């Protein structure tokens, strides 16, 4: 054996494995007395000596068995039976309820008056069961309150459930108490605070996550420290990680696996362009939402490539803000990440890692998705590292005969031993995957998720009472409650009270808006998720792929859904409207104001998708002027509003739905665009314009010109042009879906004649570069003045202005059309409901 650092580390590592756990570190300190870096490297290897152990990827039952419990440090006492009395009194239980603000003051007063100490119903478990049954508490919250140990409030966030347990702490589902937004809160264990490097690592994760905003990356909303506990607030994604998906349901189909890898590559490309290498890509760090969108998770091991920073990073800039420096990120030879998916160079020296290391890890993930196994294995982590460096690349086709040569070739290039032999960027990989021409998945909903077309019957979790159990109507779970010493201040103790049986975590209201257990009507507006909740349409369409796929399959069609009613529509005239993804905020351009010749913007809200709209409220004078405001375009989260004032576009924003709009800014979304581009897609990543292209004196055609960008903080790129075979004269507005595959225009169908007659036409295409289909006229009842269509969040519903032949509420009303499946029972179609 040579005297190289790697060989010496291997020798010490293998020798240390032969020693009892308690003797390893003292022995290693003696052997490495003159070489501290060698000691750290070998200790890191020993820390990964069980390659199959990963807390983040274990089942919660397995994790719970290893976690410290509150009673571990207490005198032994008989274990409580399920029907044992609660550890808190009725008064303590009600007091805790009041502290966390789960119930209103009126509800608390009603409960207090309806019970008494002598009444058997005053047992806290009975009260908790009743509140769970009524949907006012989750099982997790009820169990926590009954135990009387953990604090359900973390700063301004109310804990709803435990999501996962990781090496650095715990991840909870929570809700912002003011903004009513459901989030994921990642809390670092106070045990980690003893290590300055671990705190710095967590702080680095916060800074890195804050720089990234992309549909395929889990967004970071907030970070802070509360009562000694650091936490990161992230986007809550309803779905599973790919590790759990494969473990539960088996290997994925070829089309799903390739599509998921492509989506992950798109998100990672966004990070790489900003100098960020993930360094821990694995199935457990890729989440798939309920609509099949891949979200890259956990940038806790992210590595900033200083070569892209253009200047050396310092600990603090002139403003006092902490910067990320190379020295802070890693120590030489540190082994981080999961061995089974780690690039060969990463196991040798963490400083050798670059973007191509993520390409390698993503290749190992592709192998796992298709086979259910890792490409290399070994009895120790060191042996796994050696296999990654020296082992023969396994064949995908031997495990999966349906894998074509093209995908096999892409895989082998992704996991090449030398970085120079791999794809040199995620962009190259994306092109290679698209060149494989693997058919898109028929449905973007992963197979393991409940079929939205037929929500499963719920079998609620139970809260134990004296001799009875009460079923919650909302969830099919035995919710977990884990109290631990990990959170000595915020979460006092970890104890397994209920173990999870995660069968279903949501129900569907008739409108398709998802509701969560344990959230009262006053917080229902928090349930909007622009990526997963469809707006005001039949909830079952979520199970059938994108809007373009549904309608081109031939068994779906556009139908008139409804008139939005007399609250939305005034006796005057409406000129356009748009709605947030949750269906709870509506902005209308209308002449209903004091001056009926003016056009102003009015906002309406509601508590749920089935509730009545509030009375319209005119937007502030900074927005509504005498110049006339039209063409409102609302972002999916309802926090960004753009509109036209004359020929100019203005944009206003707000921090939350409870905050006022900022003064509008002219041209805020127009960097890189020519003047007078008036239309944006809902995600604000694509601008588009329909224009007439003259081919000769007697021939012309209409083209759709689009400009795209990867984030709202960037300017738009150069335009692309696609031909559009219009069946008339597109003149009264058009709308484009976020994926660029569905286009709807209000088109004049009697060119040169008066009065002008218009109709809505739709067209689809396979992707951004594919040609458009021939436009098809929507099958709507006789209507006049049709214009300003606006596709809603998932392109299966749209709003438009028109006057129905049978009349309406004003001279032009706001109507809704929706995609519905052909052959619905008579009397149950959107058109029937609209009558």
UniProtKB/TrEMBL annotation:
Keywords for this protein: ATP-binding, Kinase, Membrane, Nucleotide-binding, Transferase, Transmembrane, Transmembrane helix
Descriptive protein name: Serine/threonine-protein kinase PrkC
Residue ranges of the TM segments: 479-499
Domain Protein kinase: 157-438
Gene3D superfamilies, per the entry: Phosphorylase Kinase, domain 1, Transferase(Phosphotransferase) domain 1
Skewed-composition ranges (Low complexity): 443-456
EC number: 2.7.11.1
Segments for region (Disordered): 69-89, 442-469, 614-638, 652-674
Pfam families recorded: PD40, Pkinase
PANTHER family, A to Z: MITOGEN-ACTIVATED PROTEIN KINASE KINASE KINASE 20-RELATED (PTHR43289), SERINE_THREONINE-PROTEIN KINASE NEKL-3 (PTHR43289:SF6)
PROSITE patterns: PROTEIN_KINASE_DOM (PS50011), PROTEIN_KINASE_ST (PS00108)
InterPro entries, alphabetized: Kinase-like_dom_sf (IPR011009), Prot_kinase_dom (IPR000719), Ser/Thr_kinase_AS (IPR008271), WD40 (IPR011659)
One MF annotation (Gene Ontology) recorded for this entry: protein serine/threonine kinase activity
Record keyword DNA-binding present: no
């Amino acid at each position: 054996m040579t005297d190289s650092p790697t060989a010496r580390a291997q020798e010490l590592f293998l020798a240390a494995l032969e020693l009892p756990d308690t003797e390893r570190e003292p022995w290693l300190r003696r052997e490495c007395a003159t070489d501290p870096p060698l000691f750290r490297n070998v200790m890191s290897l020993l820390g990964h000596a069980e390659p199959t152990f990963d807390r983040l990827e274990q089942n919660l039952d397995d994790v719970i068995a290893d976690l410290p419990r509150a009673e571990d440090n207490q005198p032994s006492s008989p274990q409580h039976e399920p029907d044992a009395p609660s550890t808190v009194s009725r008064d303590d239980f009600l007091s805790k309820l009041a502290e966390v603000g789960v119930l209103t003051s009126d509800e608390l007063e009603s409960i207090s008056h309806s019970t008494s100490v002598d009444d058997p119903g005053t047992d806290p478990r009975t009260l908790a069961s009743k509140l769970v049954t009524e949907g006012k508490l989750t099982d997790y919250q009820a169990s926590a309150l009954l135990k009387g140990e953990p604090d359900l409030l973390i700063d301004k966030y109310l804990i709803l459930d435990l999501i996962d347990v990781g090496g650095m702490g715990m991840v909870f589902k929570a809700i912002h108490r003011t903004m009513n937004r459901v989030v994921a809160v990642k809390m670092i264990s106070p045990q980690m605070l003893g290590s300055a490097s671990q705190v710095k690592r967590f702080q680095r994760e916060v800074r890195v996550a804050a720089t990234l905003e992309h549909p395929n990356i889990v967004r970071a909303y907030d970070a802070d420290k509360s009562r000694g506990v650091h936490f990161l607030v992230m986007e809550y994604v309803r779905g599973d990680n790919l590790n759990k998906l494969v473990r539960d349901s088996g290997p994925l189909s070829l089309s799903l696996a390739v599509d998921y890898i492509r989506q992950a590559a798109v998100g990672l490309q966004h990070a790489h362009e900003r100098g960020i290498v993930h360094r821990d890509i694995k199935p457990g760090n890729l989440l798939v939402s309920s609509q099949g969108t891949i979200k890259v998770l956990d940038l806790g091991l992210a590595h900033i490539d200083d070569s892209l920073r253009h200047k050396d990073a310092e600990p603090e800039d002139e403003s006092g803000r902490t910067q990320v420096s190379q020295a802070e990120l890693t120590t030489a030879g540190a082994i981080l990440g999961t061995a089974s998916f780690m690039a060969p160079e990463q196991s040798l020296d963490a400083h050798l890692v670059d973007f191509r290391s993520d390409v390698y890890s993503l290749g190992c993930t592709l192998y796992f998705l298709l086979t259910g196994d890792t490409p290399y294995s070994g009895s120790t982590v060191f042996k796994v590292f050696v296999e990654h460096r020296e082992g023969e690349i396994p064949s995908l086709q031997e495990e999966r005969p349906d894998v074509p040569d093209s995908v096999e070739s892409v895989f082998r290039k992704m996991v090449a031993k030398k970085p120079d032999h791999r794809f040199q960027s995620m962009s190259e990989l994306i092109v290679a995957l698209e060149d494989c021409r693997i058919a898109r998945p028929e449905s973007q909903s992963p197979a393991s998720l409940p079929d939205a077309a037929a929500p499963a019957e719920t079998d609620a979790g139970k809260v134990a009472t004296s001799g009875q159990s009460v079923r919650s109507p909302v969830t099919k779970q035995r919710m977990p409650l884990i109290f631990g010493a990990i959170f000595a201040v915020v979460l006092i103790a970890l104890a397994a009270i209920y173990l999870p049986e995660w069968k279903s975590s949501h129900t569907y209201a008739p409108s398709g808006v998802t509701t969560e257990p344990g959230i009262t009507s006053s917080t229902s507006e928090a349930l909007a998720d622009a990526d997963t909740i469809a707006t005001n349409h039949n909830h079952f369409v979520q199970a059938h792929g994108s809007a373009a796929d549904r309608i081109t399959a031939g068994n779906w069609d556009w139908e008139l859904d409804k008139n939005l009613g007399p609250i939305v529509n005034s006796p005057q005239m409406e000129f356009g409207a748009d709605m947030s993804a949750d269906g709870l905020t509506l902005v209308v351009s209308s002449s209903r104001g004091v001056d009926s010749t003016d056009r102003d913007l009015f906002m309406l809200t509601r508590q749920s998708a089935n509730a009545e709209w509030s009375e319209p409220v005119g937007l502030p004078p900074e927005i509504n002027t005498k110049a006339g405001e039209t063409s409102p375009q609302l972002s999916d989260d309802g926090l960004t509003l753009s509109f036209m004032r004359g020929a100019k576009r203005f944009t206003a924003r707000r921090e939350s739905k409870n905050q006022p709009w900022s003064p509008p800014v002219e041209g805020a979304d127009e960097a890189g665009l020519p003047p007078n581009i008036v239309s944006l897609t809902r995600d604000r990543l694509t601008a588009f314009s329909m224009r007439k292209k003259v081919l000769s004196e007697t021939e012309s055609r209409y083209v759709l010109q689009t400009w795209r960008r990867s984030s709202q903080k960037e300017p738009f790129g150069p335009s692309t042009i696609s031909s559009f075979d219009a069946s008339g004269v597109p003149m009264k507005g058009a709308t484009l879906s976020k994926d660029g595959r569905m286009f709807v225009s209000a088109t004049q169908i009697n060119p040169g004649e008066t009065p002008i007659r218009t109709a809505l036409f739709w067209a689809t295409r396979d992707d951004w570069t594919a040609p458009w289909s021939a436009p098809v006229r929507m099958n709507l009842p006789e209507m006049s003045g049709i214009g300003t269509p606006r596709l809603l969040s998932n392109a299966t519903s749209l709003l438009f202005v028109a006057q129905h032949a049978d009349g309406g509420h004003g001279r032009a009303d706001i109507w809704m059309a929706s995609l519905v499946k052909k052959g619905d029972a008579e009397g149950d179609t959107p058109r029937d409901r609209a009558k």
